[in-house]
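1st attempt posting a full record on here, be nice pls
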Amino acid sequence: MGQAYSAGLTVTDSIILRKERILPLKGQVLVKKGDKVKAETVVAETLLPGKVVPFNLANKLGVTPAQLEVYIKIKAGQKITKDTILAENKGLFGLGFFKNEIRSPVEGEVENISSVTGQVLLREPRIPVQVKAFMDGLVTEVIEGEGVIIENKSAYIQGIFGIGDETVGELKMLATTPDDELDLAKIDDSCRDKVIVAGALVRLHAIEAAVKHGVKAIITGGIDDQDLKKLLGYDIGVAITGHEKVGLTIVCTEGFGKITMAQKTFDLLKALNGRKTSIHGRTQIRAGVIRPEIIIPMDFEESELVSKEASLPILEPGTLIRIIRQPHFGRIAKVISLPEELTKVESETMVRILVGEFEDGTRFSMPRANVEVIES
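the predicted structure (as tokens):
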């Protein structure tokens, strides 16, 4: 029986997930191994150094750098506020006439004082950074000073493309069929703090309405690239997404344009309507692929958290696939056969092809590189 390995995309009602939740630099872990955590739980925190502000104190005071030490009122490491006097002179003849006091332009601390340049380096307050669990689960490992590893059992869907950071909300089905276009009239205050599910397309006006009504995220089959450009104010390019500040997170399960959501994906979301959902839109399509994720935690026993060895997705007869090239981009099909002989394609290159079948029974052939496996 023929088979091949291909890029894969997971859509499943049950998987053991293992997520690292790591600080950007050393800090403090706030939970311990064996703790059950909620998605909103802060598991680790640290303080990032504040911005350094150079300040020419000698110039402001009207003295030479060598004279500065006579007038300076601070020392390295000292905490300061905007009322702190950095340096002062006594005025004319020491009688207070034309007395000059230089106060700090920022809050924070004194980083360095130079008698060579007359400058002081002031550092703004440290920036607190917290890492949350993101998904309900169990802390199975603590990485001292860095973070934790959390595991759970979840329904799990990988998207094709997304924007927006991590968020959590209750799943709410607004679409009635996988090929629906999200109806603006359905977006109201009942959608506040929810992760709403569209069908094949969500338009810009619907996204704007969702932001207005406090929606946490939108799951859709597709999105128009021009609507996306208007929403962001720029072309997305090939950068890593996920840090856009547009008021919500968007995950596309199929691609760009109006593309019917895969029936399996739609049915899974519909079956889990009302469940707590963790979702992010981070996407990278170059080397080191990052896919947006939809995670819906399920009840589990600790004994179920047994990590499975990663395996490559396999193409074989019966495998469910998504086409990732035109003219059938985004369509779902299943593999019928994998001919071994090389076949000449339009580019006149010789490649291995597959024979597939769409849901309506129509058969086709195309290069194996033009599809990805939908894992379950």
